């Protein structure tokens, strides 16, 4: 079961990264061009929200079934924090990704309340860009390729 969730989580991450990048640059470019907000832009933002939340659910299942998880009870939090691999997989990656998804959710929710297109795009651009930076900072690149 662990291997299936790991494969799904890894491949779904490519989709999350692609859609998040697309939504971020779409919002940045349309903010700079002062374009009007269209249904397509709403769908891109919504799809980013949905894909990222599905990734979170897959990641949470994976987190609790992964072999690293027993390190908390066997070695203790001090030993986990001293080991860079355990710290990445058990603390840094999950926490950073949850924060990124919270930023995506906040950005999506806030943009719906804005009335002008420029403010909608600016809100999405800021929150999604921050989320993209966090996601890129904590992807375990050595395990990804």
Task: Give the overall shape.
Answer: elongated
Strand tally, please?
Answer: 0
Overall pLDDT level = 92
Which percent range fits the helix content?
over 70%
As a percent range, the share of strand residues is under 5%
End-to-end distance: 22 Å
Computed CA radius of gyration, to the nearest angstrom: 17 Å
Q: What's the number of domains? A: 1
Q: How many distinct helices?
A: 7
Biggest sheet, in brief?
A: none
The oligomerization state is single chain
Transmembrane segments: 12-32, 44-66, 86-109, 121-141
Keywords: Membrane, Transmembrane, Transmembrane helix
Protein name: 50S ribosomal protein L27
Secondary-structure map:
Layout: H1 2-33, H2 39-65, H3 71-75, H4 77-82, H5 84-113, H6 117-138, H7 141-144
Transmembrane segments: 12-32, 44-66, 86-109, 121-141
Protein name: 50S ribosomal protein L27
Keywords: Membrane, Transmembrane, Transmembrane helix
Describe this structure in words.
- Helix 5 (84-113) runs antiparallel to helix 6.
- The protein is built from seven helices and no strands.
- It has helices at 2-33, 39-65, 71-75, 77-82, 84-113, 117-138, 141-144.
- The protein is 87% helix and 0% strand.
- The longest helix has 32 residues, at 2-33.
- It has 145 residues and is mainly α.
- It is elongated, with a radius of gyration of 17 Å.
- It has one domain (2-144).
């Amino acid at each position: 079961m662990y291997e299936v969730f790991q494969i799904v989580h890894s491949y779904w991450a490519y989709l999350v990264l692609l859609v998040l990048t697309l939504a971020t640059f779409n919002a940045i470019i349309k903010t700079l061009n002062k374009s009007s907000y269209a249904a397509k832009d709403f769908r891109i933002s919504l799809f980013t929200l949905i894909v990222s939340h599905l990734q979170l659910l897959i990641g949470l299942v994976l987190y609790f079934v992964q072999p690293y998880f027993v390190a908390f009870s066997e070695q203790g939090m001090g030993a986990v924090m001293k080991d860079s691999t355990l710290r990445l997989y058990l603390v840094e990656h999950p926490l950073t990704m949850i924060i990124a998804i919270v930023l995506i959710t906040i950005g999506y929710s806030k943009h719906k309340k804005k009335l002008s297109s420029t403010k909608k795009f600016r809100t999405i651009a800021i929150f999604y860009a921050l989320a993209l930076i966090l996601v890129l900072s904590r992807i375990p690149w050595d395990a990804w390729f």
